[in-house]
Amino acid sequence: MATTSGTTHPTGPTGEADDPPKPRMTRRQRARLSRGIQYAVLVIVVAVIAFRADWGNLQQAFFNTEVIGRMFPRVLIVALVNTLLYTALAFVFGLLLGIVIALMRLSSVGPYRWLASAYVELFRGLPALLVLFFVAYGIPNAFPGFTLPFLVMVTVGLGLTAAAYMSETIRAGIQAVPRGQVEAARTLGMSPARTMVTIVLPQAFRIVIPPLTNEIILLTKDSSLVYVLGVTAGQVELTKFSRDMLNTTVNSTPLLIGGLLYLCITLPLSQLVRRLEIRHAKAR
User: Fold this and answer.
1) Helical spans, DSSP H, in the chain
2) What pTM did the predictor assign?
3) Gap between the Cα atoms of 272 and 226, Å rounded
4) Where are the transmembrane segments (predicted)?
């Protein structure tokens, strides 16, 4: 060990003083460095894309103002309105049927439970496109001379699949209601049906509103399958309208406008779902 002025310094095998250990980076410093590197990489990627892309060609292909002018106002007053209409009708039908299926799944009667379980497994396993096709063409073939109005076909075709998913959501909400409240209602002399309607279902729906809102988003996108029913010019929804305009104009702008309008529907609903989930978490 070498000493200088009464101070002791560690020495290595050669007798020379070792360098003091270098300070290590703290966890916060490493995280800050990592974020800085990620931001730098992102900026570089965006800059490369911005400088390399042919913006004039992109504008002509995806944001052609002449094509946009030809789309309006029909894309709003026909396609968008029909998309919202088909979604709303299918959701209402699916919700009502889903409540019935959920109650059958929870019934003490065995055949009800079996039928409800079979329904859920069947329609959750089939693509919505096949269900729509069966409703539109299977029923008229099974019952010659019996035809369904167009809106009824859309409502039933989309709603049958939605009901299978919503019934499971509603069933979970019903089972989440404390059992003690049901027992208290029965003690007060309420019938099982009145207890379910006035006590259980209102609380269950407060629980399942966020996932049911997600189902509206899914139905909005599933409404694009309505084209299999052979729609007329006044029955087209956003996807069919955009596709027809694409074929007419030989330009991709209609697809971009259609996608933006879908986002105008789904993004506010997504924000609503998040707010409802936060509110529900605080209430708990």
Assistant:
1) 27-52, 55-62, 65-71, 74, 81-105, 110-125, 128-133, 139-142, 150-176, 179-187, 192-195, 201-222, 238-249, 253-283
2) 0.83
3) 26
4) 37-55, 75-101, 122-140, 146-166, 255-274
CA distance 55 to 61: 10
What is the CATH code of the structural domain delimited by 74-283? Answer: 1.10.3720.10
User: Please, are residues 105 and 116 in contact by the beta-carbon 8 Å criterion?
Assistant: yes
Q: Phi and psi (nearest 5°) for 224?
A: -70, -10
How far is it, in rounded angstroms, from Cα 192 to Cα 28?
58
Peptide bond between residue 21 and the one before it cis (omega within 30 degrees of 0): no
Residue 268, pLDDT > 90, answer yes
Q: Coil, helix or strand for 103?
A: helix
Please give the structure tokens belonging to residue 159. Answer: 């709603």
Quickly state the pLDDT bin for 193 (edges 50, 70, 90).
Answer: confident
Evaluate whether 169 touches 215 at the Cβ level (below 8 Å). Answer: yes
Q: Please, what is the average pLDDT of the chain?
A: 89
